[in-house]
């Protein structure tokens, strides 16, 4: 699986595993996006997107864009992105993590 590293013009390979959350550790907002973010190329399921966020300690949210083409739907957001807030985005699903209760 590949994604674009925003700090360089290279491709990195990452291993993505699914990790569940305890109940109440994730807030889901339909038709909402967060400013900024990094698009993860090659991620084909929302579970892979979730897993990529969980294993990135800087990730506070991920967005699944149901309107984009396959392998272009996953966006990872960090605390820096959160300073700009959220906005309406038809077809987007924003998953905000509460890292204090992750298992």
CATH C-level name: Alpha Beta
Give unreliable regions as ranges.
1-21
Quantity of strands, as a count: 7
CATH topology value: Hepatocyte Growth Factor
Strand order of the largest sheet: 3-7-5-6-4
Strand percentage, roughly? 35-45%
Please tell me the total number of domains: 1
Structural class: mainly beta
**Biggest β-sheet: count, sense, barrel?**
5 strands, antiparallel
Architecture (CATH level 2) name: 3-Layer(bba) Sandwich
The CATH homologous superfamily corresponds to: Hepatocyte Growth Factor
Following the backbone from N to C, one meets helices and strands in this order, namely EEEEHEEHE
Shape: globular
What is the first-to-last residue Cα distance? 24 Å
Average pLDDT taken over every residue: 78
Task: Please tell me how large the radius of gyration is.
Answer: 13 Å
Helix content: 10-25%
Output the number of helix runs. Answer: 2
